[in-house]
Amino acid sequence: MVVGQIEITNVDYKYQPDTPFESIALQEINFAVEQGTYTAVIGHTGSGKSTLIQLIDGLIKPTTGEVTVVDKHVTPDSSGKELDQLRKNVGIVFQFPESQLFEETVIKDIAFGPKNFGKSDTEANEIASRAMKLVGLSDDFAEKSPFDLSGGQMRRVAIAGVLALEPDILILDEPTAGLDAAGQEQIMTLFKELNVEHGITIILVTHNMEDVAKYADQVYVLNHGKIVKSGGSREIFADQQWLNDNYLTVPVTTRIAQKLINKGYHFDEFPLTVEELSAKLLPNLKGEK
Amino acid sequence: MIEVKNITYLYPGNEIPALEDVSVTIQDNEWIALVGHNGSGKSTIARIMDGLVDDYQGTVVINGIELTDDTVWDIRDQIGFVFQNPDNQFVGATVQDDVAFGLENRGVPRPEMIERVKNALTVVGMSEFATREPSSLSGGQKQRVALAGALALQPKILILDEATSMLDPQGRKEVLDILVKMKQKFSLTIIMITHDLAETAMAERVLLMNKGHLVVDDVPEKLFSQPDIIKANGLELPYSERLKQELIQDGVKMPQEYMNEDRMVEWLWDKLK
Fold first, then answer.
1. Is the pLDDT confidence value at B134 over 90?
2. Chain A contact for B209, CB < 8 A?
3. Less crowded by CB within 10 Å, the N or C end of chain A?
């Protein structure tokens, strides 16, 4: 058996346990992610997605069960220090990460993290320059104020700040919210490159099913604090009835494919992207060439 | 009616104007989608309408009142503004305090205030969170509370600056359904700044901004049938248009006019069966 890079085994998480205010946020969670893969976590607001992220990042510890990230383990008895260890491998891009920018220049802002973790000024600046390259910001930006940049550029700076911590695992919480279509596409392409070319493990938390279909290898569906379904993205989206029953939307491709199936069309393999759908319809479009 | 006349605006320290000679008239009870890429000027024009920006050239007239330093509060009484990031507008210690804030400022009597806060929270489905701290809510829940704060003021005009961006698809649908009802019931004028295609398609009229200019003022279907303009402005192509482009690229002859999803399915099935 391949040992995963992230293993969450039989985890429950309760807020304010053993008090009258106890509430269960996560229940019987088994979650595994292998190194270099791209995983999507989907589910409604309040389904437990954020709590799951916090577990992986060592911001909270499980009430029962065990969380392993690379070679670090956290159990209900772990100390604060052990929780901190977990975080070394994980970078999180939170919603609207640009709201956390604060330094006078782009390079200072990106170098802040590495400096904080004990790198010298020179080392931190080198790491920051590399991170800028990774997110596609040219050197011209280094001495600019982050607050003079466009929304999409500010977000790149914020992402570079996370990458400067050199994480093996990148968790993205709705990373494209508020960006225009071109900016969304650029940012999502950037993450895919980080995944494919640099082997960074990606966990994408999103409501955008088009992105899930396009980028993710595997999908976990959360509902009321439980993992209710998991599998490859094609497998998940092929079960449209189940998704509808669980009030989850499907990518438009699969919705159109399903409408054609309902009319009597047959797909040998369920299409996930517009390119796949087009390719599968093409041979049968009579007299339209 | 909103009359924006010849607005030009330069952000301090910038050389290129954020808005250049923009004029537009919006009728009562219209539903407008205001679109364009980041930095196109769409948020700036909306902020100017609400008197949030100083030192611009041109005039803004809202329901017959010209926006000036003296009238800005009368004008804001008519406009509810919901910002993109709700964290930037929370002031209350609890959700209900927060929704009450604007009413308190306007001196609404306490019994009426309590009633309006309760109703607004019910409308957005957040009444069970009335006594919670805003900071303990999720992004989507915060956006609902921010919307409740605007609705409680019973505005004539509602401006939403990407105010649904953090909602999940079901939550977004619920909020949009609420807006449709509010628009009918109170003859609301809605101006929705959005990157979302489905939201754009819901509007009666689309205003497309680019580099500080109003470049398209038309019904959504017309805009959707012009893929070149959509791409040039950094907007997302509607899915059926993307599929159409893909098929055309592969040599399929397709009709020129915009087909929505169902129309597209019909057209495809007709050729496939």
1. no
2. no
3. N
Q: In the block, which residue shows the tokens 């923009």?
A: B22
B137 touches chain A (CB under 8 A): no
Closest partner residue to A260 (CB to CB) among B168, B250, B269 is B269
Cβ within 8 Å of residue A8, ≥6 positions away: A29, A30, A31, A32, A52, A55, A56, A62, A65, A66, A67, A68
Q: Residue A1's pLDDT is what?
A: 39
Q: B8-15: which pairs have CB atoms within 8 A and are 24 or more residues apart?
A: B8/B56, B8/B57, B8/B58, B9/B44, B9/B48, B9/B53, B9/B55, B9/B56, B9/B57
pTM: 0.79
Query: Does A265 lie at the interface with B, CB-CB under 8 angstroms?
Result: yes
Pairing of strands A64-69, A6-15: antiparallel
CATH of B1-78+155-220, one of 3.40.50.1000, 3.30.430.20, 3.10.180.10, 3.40.50.300: 3.40.50.300
B37, B242, B254: residue with CB nearest A274 = B242
Alpha carbon of A67: minimum distance to chain B alpha carbons (Å) = 24
* Nearest residue of A to residue B247, measured between CA atoms: A278
Distance from CA of A247 to the nearest CA of B (A): 7
Q: Does A280 touch chain B (CB under 8 A)?
A: no
Structure tokens given for B34: 């205001």
User: In chain A, which stretches have pLDDT less than 70?
Assistant: 1-3, 286-289
Q: Which of residues 236-255 of B touch A (CB under 8 A)?
A: 236, 239, 242-243, 246-247, 250-254
Task: Count Cβ atoms within 10 A of the Cβ of residue B59 and give its class: 0-12 exposed, 13-18 middle, 19 or more buried.
Answer: middle
- Pinpoint the residues of chain B covered by CATH 3.40.50.300: 1-78+155-220
CA distances from B225 to A14, A277, B242 (A): 51, 21, 11
Q: Could you identify the residue written with the tokens 């390719």? A: A279
Q: What's the pLDDT at B170?
A: 77
CA-CA distance, B112 to B165, in Å (whole number)? Answer: 31
> CB count, 10 Å around CB of A168?
18
* Alpha helices for chain A (secondary structure H): 49-56, 80-87, 106-116, 121-134, 151-163, 181-198, 209-215, 233-238, 240-245, 252-263, 274-281
Q: Is the pLDDT of residue B3 over 90?
A: yes
ipTM of model: 0.71
Inter-chain CB proximity B171 and A45 less than 8 Å: yes
Amino acid symbol at B164: T
- Residue B48 DSSP code: H
Q: Has residue B182 got a pLDDT over 50? A: yes
Q: What is the structure's pLDDT at A107?
A: 96
| DSSP-derived secondary structure for B169-185 | HHHHHHHHHHHHHHHHH
CB < 8 Å to A253, chain B: 239
pLDDT tens digits, one per residue of B56-115: 999 999 999 999 999 999 999 999 999 887 777 778 889 999 999 989 888 899 999 999
Distance from CA of A108 to the nearest CA of B (A): 22
Residues of A in Cβ contact (< 8 Å) with B268? 256, 260, 281, 285
